[in-house]
Amino acid sequence: MGLITSCCKPSASDILTPDTETRRRQQVEAAERRRVQEEARGVKDPERVKRMQQKSEEMEQREQELQKQGGATLKWSAD
Predict the structure, then answer these.
(1) Which of 10, 33, 41, 78 allows an S-S link to 14, with CB 3.0 to 4.6 Å?
(2) pLDDT, tens only, 51-70
């Protein structure tokens, strides 16, 4: 039985493996693809999410700057 299946499979010397540098590059590319796919999973508009995150970060920076200046906090008063 082993003789029949051994003729169908390539031998170890027939299989070409990429050199170390090529293999590392391929692994990095695959990891980057997985990262991008994971970020986009469940999100219909990934650009919108990025814009919202950027806007949120800008608002936090503005708030920190105002706090450093010692005032001008936004308060709503019901007059």
Answers:
(1) 10
(2) 999 999 999 999 999 888 87
